[in-house]
Structure formats: structure tokens, C-alpha cells
Amino acid sequence: MELTALLFSLAALPLAMSETVLGVYIFSRHGDRTPKALAPANLTSLGADEVYSSGNYYRSRYVDSNATSPIFGLSSDIAVAGQMTVTAPADAVLQNSAQAFMSGLYPPVGALSTQALANDSSVESPLGGYQYIPINTVSTASSSADSENSAWLQGNSGCGNAVVSSNNYFLSSEYTSTFDDTKSFYSDLLPVINSTFDAKQATFKNAYTIFDYVHVATIHNSTIPSSDLLTNETLTQLQLLANAHEWGLAYNSTDTIRAVAGSTLAAQIVQQLNSTLNSKSAQPFGIQFGAYASFLSFFGLAQLQNVSAEFTGIVDYAAAMTFELVTNATVSGSEYPSPDDVSVRFLFANGTAAQIEPRAYPLFGQSETLLPWNTFASEMGKFAIGTTAEWCQACGNTTGQCASSTSTDSGGGDAAASSTSGKGNGISLPVAGVIGALVTLVVILGAEAAIYAISGLRLVKKSTLAQAGSGAGITTAGAKA
């Protein structure tokens, strides 16, 4: 009897220790697309289905009325625009991926969209109640407009020091030795790729573009010229070489400005999660679609390469990293936890989440996958670039808007705005996305560099293939999509 009474009393207690998700931030790559070498690149039906499936998975995890980890206060059926921020560059592949993802996250609502009119008739929204969710266009250091048609990009921000750093990779012994060692490997592939690449272009210099071209062909083409050359070993080697090439361009442990895309992304992540805390989850959901090299840059800065070699390779289509803001404290309409009671969990799915379950990994060399909010924000702050003044100083830029920023920095300005604040439910970090809109000029890099005019959206136009040659540098470097 005593045991029965105890069980009943325990059942009556509130589940104070159950975890509540206060908000999430997701950074996702686009779905399958046509190859960069055959611009303009377009999202394929397969690619749309991949990101749609991922959106549907995250719906079952965070949004649905029966979600396994429902986000506090988030509408489960009817999308409320004010509760979320959805962003993607003006690039068509990334914008369309965002739309397909959101269709999976908030699918058509059917009868729920029916409205009664004054004349006693009713009308249902088109396409079965399809939900039109705004996708904000951004141009930031993590991605740019038309990025899927550009073979070489460096965060598309015009960050001078990052461009120099990435160009230094082409002068490194690591690059030059690999270039020399793989000459025959790439020349042997010419029968497969010679409709697009000539003999001078078939080198390690174009490791990613060649891999991308062949990779897309193996997915979509029923017949490939000289396909007998594409053995499993050859395909694996193409992937590994592309991985090494892109990792070398996106991150360097002794020169972290190379990872400027990851630094500005880090600021955006903290800004969004901090906004969730400050608003008491009024805007708990944020997602951005961007370049795969931004993943690599962030992985390096967050020390994830020490956790798994997976984090040094090109992420698959529809791959996504998620940052969950969680608490075990009581959360209700009148009660909201303080920052001291909030933690962050990092999850990564290397591909469509519907097929590859997102998995938690420890950040910053920590042993635990759940970090206190203040620890997370502090660690991110060590490499995040969140203001114009910080960006200009880190990049060594002094022209354009950086000239104005430099002249006014002594008065506090943006630099002061980046400091930690004890007010509200988190730290104050300005939106990192303003960086891309403010920077208008790429620095001049010696005799090898070219001057690129950058528009308001910083549309970067380059040839789809880089010129071959072991000694040649590039004027923009590695944040590709």
C-alpha cells in the first residue's frame, strides 16, 4: 500500500526536470542541383524533395502538435511569420531550397485555410491551403547571390585578409605536392570530362568543380562517357581530393581569418538565439540556407575536426547543423527561465534529415554535448565577427564603408555594440548579416589579383572554371555552395 501511494504521489508531481526547447537555429545546405560547370545551376526535383523531406523531419521534431521536441510557443499548423526568420541569398538554388524546406515544415493546411465570407459562401486558399512563408533575401559573408554559378568565392564579402589567406593555400607545400602527385589521376579522367574540361583544366586546381561535375553525372546520367574509368576507388579519390581542396581553402588553424564565413555565421547564430531569449521565445525559429564552405569554416573554428574526420569534408546535399536552445526549468505563459538555466545543444545531419538522424556533437573541445548558454556564447564570441568595425579590422579593409567605419570607430560605434550586456535574457550581438551589405570593394592583391566591383547584393561574377596551373593563385577563395 505504501508503495502504491508513493507511486501515485510521484505521478502527481509536475515534470519539472523535463526538457523544453525554447528555440532553434538551423543552417542548411541546398538540395541536389545541376553542376556548377554547366551554369546556370538549378535545383533539381530530387533536390527539392531532399530539402522538403528534411523540413518534414524537423516538423515532426519541433513543430507538429505531436512533435517529439516541440518548440515552446511555436504554432503547430498555421505558420506565423513573426515567429520565425527564414533567410537565403538571392541565388535561385538556395532560395528555392528554402521554399521547399518550409513547405515540409509547414505543409498545406487544407480546410484550415477555408474562410467564410459575408455572402454566406466560403473560399479555400489555392493549392490545398499552401502556406506562403516569406524567405528573406540576404547577402552576407556566408553566402552570396548567384553563388551556385561561381566556381571560386571567398565568403563573397571582399574580406582582404581572408582572400590573401586562402590564396596562400595555393602556395603551400600541401597544395603543390598534391597538385604534382595527382596530375596523372586527373589527366586519366579526361575521356569522362573532356566535354567540359580541357587538359589544362583537368588538375587538382579544379578538384571541387571536377568532383561536382562527375558527382552530379553519377546521380542523373544513365550513360557517362568512358564510365568504366569511374570505379569506386576513383570516385572515392575524387571525393577525398575535393574534400582536401575545400578544407584547405575554408580553414587554417594558424590563420583563422580564412574562416571569415564561419566567423560571421557564428555571430548570426548567437544573435538569433539571444533574440529568442530576450523575446521569451516570441521568435523561436530561425533557419538560413547557405554555402557548404561556411560549414567547413565553422567546423574548423568550433574544433569539430578533432571530433570526427567527417567535419573536414564537403557536406552532402540538404545537410544541416542545428543549435537547440533548451532548459529544464519551468516554462509557462508567466514563467521563463533566466540565461543561467538555459543550455545549447549542437546537432548535425550530413544529408537529408529524414534519412540521416541529426546527431549531437561536442563543440569547442568540450566533453559534453550540452553547454550552458553563457559558456556557448562566450566560446562563440572568441571567433564570431558581428559588427562592421570588427569585420573591417579583421579583414584589413580600409576602403568603401570600412573607411567610414574606421574614422568613427574611436567614438565607440559598432565596436562598443559588440560587448556583452547583462541586460535581458542574453548577450547583445548585432546582426552579422549587415556586413555583406556594407562592404563594396575587394582589395587589390598584387600582380595576380583582379578588381571586382560588388553591387548592393554583392553579386560576384566569375568564369565557371578556374584557370589551371600549379603556380597560379585565385583572387577569391573557398566559400562555395
From TrEMBL:
Question: Does the keyword field hold Transmembrane?
Answer: yes
On the tree of life, the source organism's domain of life is Eukaryota
A Pfam match: His_Phos_2
Q: What does the UniProt keyword field contain?
A: Membrane, Signal, Transmembrane, Transmembrane helix
**Which GO terms fall under molecular function for this chain's record?**
phosphatase activity
Q: Which residues cross the membrane?
A: 429-454
- UniProt keyword RNA-binding present: no
Concerning InterPro entries, the annotation shows: His_Pase_clade-2 (IPR000560), His_PPase_superfam (IPR029033), Histidine_acid_phosphatase (IPR050645)
Which positions carry the signal peptide feature in this UniProt record?
Answer: 1-18
CDD domains attached to this UniProt entry: HP_HAP_like
Cross-referenced Gene3D superfamilies, in alphabetical order?
Phosphoglycerate mutase-like (3.40.50.1240)
- Entry's family note: Belongs to the histidine acid phosphatase family.
Q: What is this protein called?
A: Uu.00g014560.m01.CDS01
